[in-house]
């Protein structure tokens, strides 16, 4: 007989996954989404993409301020780098114009490259810092670059809640 | 199938773009076929080549302008919408390079539109840096494709000039063969190009000016920056560079990328708790017992999932032990300093002791009131410690909000009870505490209490709002909200305390902006007790609600006026002239107000009444049609009576003096509210705001 899966990922393969709270292991290691915090944009410098570094009070007990601020500042730096008007953007513009913008079919723009870097960075931050604290950051691009959505998860623990919580294997962005 | 309006629009929308494409392609093809060879022979081979290159650019830019995503913002998710609170203000103010810019709530997309963003009714999308909807390309022109549209206009102008010129040359050269095939075709080409020459070149020049000034068509047409400063301009060269050379922005609405999921699995790490005072006795079994006895007092409503604070809430001794309480005050102070670093730390650190000291002092001289005072202190502490919980109540259902003092049910019940004690005390005999103590408390405490609340983001204020207004079975009723001013936890004892003369205490009721989502009522500043509510526990708030109901029955007029304040620009109605003599509003509160209204953007307190007024235009109006709202808002501040769905709010309207929404960005600066002064003169409120709002920003 197959033993119950031990990791959350494997538990998702259970047939009645959503009801798996009956599983004792589920009861012990359940985390469910309890809240979402939205870090808004900082428009003091115009429409450049920049997020507020103000520490949300909901995260007060979940993560250290410095970690959060570092994350947001790094993201702001990435976006500033992406939106910088300089040599590379001139070149891209001219090349695009010259090729009737067909170059966009072949080549990735600088912004897209930086977005990929941002996505990797957020993934890494989630894995190393936020997920161990029961938080997940959603890539702002999925919210139209308006907010950084931070999902707060609660440990259902062995409360045996009858509300049928399911364990979480959440992607940092869908 | 009978054609409905929507169906008819769709094919109709393609007519201009089809016409433009046909004319462009057709004319140019004819040009190259009939006149090109003659040009090669008679003039030079360079002419057709240049014309060809120009036509090539025209086509490329036309295609990009037509098919490129202009910068559509995806709809906000439901969670974010709940945070914003559908009954929030219509506008949210933000400061961009020192200029107040108003962000409007988009009812379709469920978020506050970023600056320069506008909702296109034809495309039914919010578009970033919205310029206009161009029928000739059947697409919105926004941030991502404005450059291509601009280049399309320039290149098309050039192309039209070239075609017209070459055609004219041909005609002049073949005057005798005018009615031959070539001649006829050339005449057709010339007439078409001549017909479109003026409009296209005129539009190109118009956009050239716009680019140089750093404005969008939408901003130019609505006159946003006519009287004032455009905060988005980077200078002429900077603007040109920005339009032509900036990197291509990404698409927001794109296919979902497959990503490796990140597992979130308990147990979770928690941040380290700073040193706790040894005098704190969280594990005192006696305390637990006493507090658990008070659990029954807690209001029974559904309690959502709780968030555990890393630091246990302070459990105050049930005995009236002043020394213990005092040491606990010290420990709380330390903890608060740690937990609230986001507060202007100079404020908190320097004034917390001052804040807490009066409480300690209160405990000494009036032992007979110790119960009340100590419970007040408990409420104070609890307020601080419960701040995160309260703030987090963004998306919690309003009905359940009141009940959910999450991790601290004991203290909640305690506070409820303490509140009832205070209230009873108030009813009986107000000036029990020495006036100077209370005054010190009044002067210090509200500010400090406001600090935590002030720094909470808008959502927390919204949650307060719903908390205050919600009652069992009553969803977000705001009628009783103003009465909160009566039950002031921190100034219960002496109605003549500090800056709150007894007769003035009524006015805060009118503006319970503290609870209102972003109603930025400066009058509240006058009432520190009012402000204190923000940091009260939900249990206290619940009991406050009950009290409010009682008072409301006794004093419907006050309820009415206070209630109307919720929906109207607070400045107006909320403050009777007597309130003008109130003490200065603490700047912290002012910034809190602003923060409430601008979702804690952390900007300086240049919020002014203008901003507060715009942000509080109509709470309810967010759910009704925006155009109707703006119209109502512009028509004089009976903003509440916008939607039939909000009749309960409407009934307050007659009692409220008309208010005028604040105005353009430029005028916002003029409306800075100084803490000492009070309401703006209603006439000063800009009626320019009306056309602006009406213009459908």
UniProtKB/TrEMBL annotation, chain A:
What residues does the Golgin subfamily A member 7/ERF4 domain cover? 37-149
Chief location category: Golgi
| A Pfam family reported for this protein in Swiss-Prot or TrEMBL | Erf4
Keywords per UniProt: Membrane
The GO annotation for biological process reads: protein targeting to membrane
Q: Name one GO cellular component term.
A: Golgi membrane
> Where would one find the signal peptide in this protein?
none
Protein name, as recorded: Golgin subfamily A member 7/ERF4 domain-containing protein
Automatic annotation (TrEMBL), chain B:
User: What membrane topology does the annotation report for this chain?
Assistant: Multi-pass membrane protein
Presence of the UniProt keyword Hydrolase in the record:
no
* Domain Palmitoyltransferase DHHC as annotated: residue spans: 102-222
Q: What class of enzyme is it?
A: transferase
Region Disordered, annotated ranges? 256-286, 302-321, 384-409, 460-527, 549-586, 609-697
Membrane-spanning regions, if any?
A: 12-39, 45-67, 148-172, 184-210
The subcellular location is: Golgi apparatus membrane; Mitochondrion membrane
Q: What EC number(s) does this enzyme carry? A: 2.3.1.225
Please give the catalytic activity noted in the UniProt record. Answer: L-cysteinyl-[protein] + hexadecanoyl-CoA = S-hexadecanoyl-L-cysteinyl-[protein] + CoA
Q: What does the similarity note say?
A: Belongs to the DHHC palmitoyltransferase family. ERF2/ZDHHC9 subfamily.
Q: What name appears for this protein in its UniProt entry?
A: Palmitoyltransferase
What organism is listed for this UniProt entry? Denticeps clupeoides
């Amino acid at each position: 007989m197959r033993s119950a899966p031990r990791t959350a990922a494997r538990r998702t393969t259970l047939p009645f996954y959503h009801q798996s709270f009956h599983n004792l292991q589920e009861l012990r290691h359940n985390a469910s989404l309890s809240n979402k915090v939205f870090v808004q944009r900082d428009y003091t410098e115009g429409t450049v993409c920049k997020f507020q570094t103000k520490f949300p009070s909901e995260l007060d007990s979940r993560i250290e301020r410095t970690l959060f601020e570092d994350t947001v500042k790094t993201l702001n730096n990435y976006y500033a780098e992406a939106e910088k008007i300089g040599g590379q953007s001139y070149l891209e513009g001219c090349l695009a114009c010259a090729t009737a913008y067909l170059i966009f079919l072949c080549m990735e723009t600088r912004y897209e490259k930086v977005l990929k870097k941002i996505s990797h960075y957020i993934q890494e931050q989630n894995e190393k810092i936020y997920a161990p604290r029961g938080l997940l950051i959603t890539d702002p691009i999925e919210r139209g670059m308006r907010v950084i959505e931070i999902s707060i998860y609660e440990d259902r623990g062995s409360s045996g809640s009858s509300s049928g919580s399911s364990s979480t294997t959440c992607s940092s962005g869908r | 199938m009978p054609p409905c309006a929507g169906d008819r629009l769709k094919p109709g929308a393609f007519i201009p773009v089809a016409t433009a494409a046909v004319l462009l392609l057709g004319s140019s093809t004819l040009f190259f076929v009939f006149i090109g060879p003659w040009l090669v022979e008679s003039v030079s081979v360079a002419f057709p080549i240049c014309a060809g290159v120009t036509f090539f650019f025209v086509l490329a830019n036309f295609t990009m302008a037509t098919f490129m995503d202009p910068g559509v913002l995806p709809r906000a998710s439901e969670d974010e919408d709940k945070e914003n609170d559908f009954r929030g203000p219509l506008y949210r103010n933000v400061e961009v390079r020192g200029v107040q810019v108003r962000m409007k709530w988009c009812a379709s997309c469920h978020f506050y539109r970023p600056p320069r963003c506008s909702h296109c009714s034809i495309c039914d999308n919010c578009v970033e840096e919205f310029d206009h909807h161009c029928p000739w390309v059947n697409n919105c022109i926004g941030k991502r494709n404005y450059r291509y549209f601009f280049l399309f206009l320039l290149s098309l102008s050039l192309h039209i000039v070239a075609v017209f010129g070459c055609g004219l040359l041909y005609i002049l050269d073949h005057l005798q063969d005018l009615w031959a095939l070539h001649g006829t075709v050339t005449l057709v080409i010339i007439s078409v190009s001549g017909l479109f020459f003026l409009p296209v070149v005129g539009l190109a020049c118009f956009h050239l000016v716009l680019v140089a000034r750093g404005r969008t068509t939408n901003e130019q047409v609505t006159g946003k920056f006519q009287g004032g400063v455009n905060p988005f301009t980077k200078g002429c060269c900077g603007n040109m560079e920005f339009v032509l050379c900036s990197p291509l922005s990404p698409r927001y609405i794109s296919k979902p990328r497959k990503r490796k999921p990140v597992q979130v699995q308990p147990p979770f790490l928690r941040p380290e708790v700073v040193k706790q005072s040894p005098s704190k006795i969280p594990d005192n079994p006696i305390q637990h017992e006493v507090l658990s006895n008070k659990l029954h007092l807690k209001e029974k409503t559904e309690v959502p999932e709780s968030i555990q604070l890393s630091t246990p809430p302070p459990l105050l001794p049930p005995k009236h032990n002043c020394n213990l309480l005092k040491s606990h005050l010290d420990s709380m102070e330390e903890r608060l300093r740690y937990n609230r670093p986001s507060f202007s730390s100079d404020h908190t650190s320097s004034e917390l002791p001052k804040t807490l000291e009066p409480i300690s002092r209160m405990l000494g001289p009036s032992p007979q009131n110790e119960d009340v005072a100590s419970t007040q202190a408990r409420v104070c502490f609890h307020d601080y410690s419960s701040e995160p919980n309260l703030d987090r109540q963004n998306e919690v259902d309003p009905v359940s909000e009141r009940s959910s003092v999450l991790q601290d049910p004991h203290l909640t019940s305690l506070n409820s009870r303490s509140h009832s004690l205070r209230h009873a005390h108030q009813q009986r005999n107000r000036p029990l505490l020495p006036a100077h103590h209370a005054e010190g408390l009044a002067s210090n405490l509200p500010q400090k209490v406001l600090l935590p609340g002030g720094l909470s983001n808008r959502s927390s204020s919204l949650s307060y709002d719903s908390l205050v207004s919600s009652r069992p079975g009553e969803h977000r009723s705001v009628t009783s909200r103003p009465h909160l001013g009566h039950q002031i936890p921190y100034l219960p004892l002496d109605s003549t305390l500090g800056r709150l003369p007894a007769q003035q205490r009524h006015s805060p009721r009118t503006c319970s902006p503290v609870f209102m989502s972003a109603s930025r009522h400066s009058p509240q500043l006058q009432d520190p007790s009012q402000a204190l509510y923000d940091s009260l526990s939900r249990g206290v708030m619940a009991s406050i609600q009950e009290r409010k109901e009682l008072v409301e029955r006794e004093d419907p007029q006050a309820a009415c006026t206070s209630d109307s304040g919720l929906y109207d620009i607070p400045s107006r109605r909320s403050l009777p002239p007597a309130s003008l003599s109130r003490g200065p509003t603490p700047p912290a509160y002012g910034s809190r107000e602003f923060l409430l209204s601008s979702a804690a953007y952390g900007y300086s307190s240049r919020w002014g009444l203008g901003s507060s007024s715009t942000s509080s235009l109509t709470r309810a109006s967010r759910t009704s049609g925006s155009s109707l709202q703006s119209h109502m808002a512009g028509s004089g501040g009976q903003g509440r009576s916008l939607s039939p769905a909000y009749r309960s709010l409407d009934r307050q309207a007659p009692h409220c003096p008309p208010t005028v929404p604040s105005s353009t960005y430029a005028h916002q600066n003029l409306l800075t509210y100084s803490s000492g002064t009070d309401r703006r003169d209603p006439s000063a409120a800009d009626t320019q705001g009306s056309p602006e709002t009406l213009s459908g920003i």
